[in-house]
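S.,

Sequence below, as promised.
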Amino acid sequence: MADPSRRRRLDNPPNVFTRAILWVAHPQLLWQKSGGMRVLERQLFTAARAGLNSVLIAIPEPDAKQLATLRTPPGLDIRWTSKGETAPMECEPPYLGISADHFIRVETLAFIARQNFPSPVSYEDVSGLSVIQVSPTREDSISRVRQPLPNGSYRRLEAPLDQGPILDWLMAAGPKKQDGFMARHFDRHLSLAASRALLETSLTPNQMTLFSTIVGLVGASLFLGDTRLVYVTGALLIWLHSVLDGCDGELARVRFQETDLGSDLDFWGDNVVHLALFTCLGVGFRLSGHTHTLLLAAIADAGVFASAWTAWRHRRKARAERARGPEAGVVDEPAGDGLESKLGRLENALAQRDFIYLLVLLAFMDMVYEFLWAAAIGGCLYFAIMLHLRRVNQNEQARQPHPTR
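The prediction came back faster than expected:
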């Protein structure tokens, strides 16, 4: 089954700081590439994703040719200083001063931007260099409180920018927290290596999604055959689809190219491959003389489609409500050790792609027929658990007291 997406609404407070100055010590550094995009582009997208609305770049505006090639976040107000102007006078407090010589995690900048600061603060790297300066008022005479940034929340820019520690730091944003055991410990190592090689190419995440889907469909079609060699080849292509399917999200997250369209393509691409796999298994065994396998395939497909459609409706609702947060399942895992909590963990386990390793193993053992039975039972079980937990979650929300008006 495909891993259906759900969004957990996070009631984060609004940003206290919506404006920032990007302090530039080395202007030529801004136009160098790192992780598939220019340093300046990454700084601007980081600010926008952290909830900032306006960024003043503390250098004169570049020429039109450079600006024409600059990818900027939609909706972000970008300004430049002119000769003789001082940046602080151009940015009304409260504002953040951000070092252009460092990369910062979006979640770190977003956390700082949401805080109330009674006095100026300077967040520094391990060497004492200022990475983020918090300016809540115009009182520049007040000494800044010095605070260290957590390890891993920033990276100082040092040559080479397109490889080594800098790229390792950027690629750490590629994996998903909800990866299954095999995906986390095996598949991700392969997909991250592939994504790393593709970062500087013109291949888009959506193109990667379509390519991985085609690989999966070719693998699924091989299960129309009836030999172990064909089954093993098909299973390995399905596994390759799973590995490559991780690349689209990795490329999108590292390059800041996530879009609703890309997320939807990834979601339905996975489900189409799984529908094709179960259908081809049923038809292939039917051609070999098994009379009931079409029914098994239909049951497995019904489970996949019902789960996907339920998740799709939840996804659209969450998107309409502008829910924020990482993708996960259809409902959150209930806390504790009760039945709902155990069912939640089972649901998340069934949603992972680790079942593909079972397909590969059974293909080598020439037991693909048994896999079809497991798919029919597992698909229905997964959908039943999803509906139950979704109902429990809705009832729990209905019991919550209304906020004070």
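The chain has two domains: 6-161, 174-399.

Coffee later?
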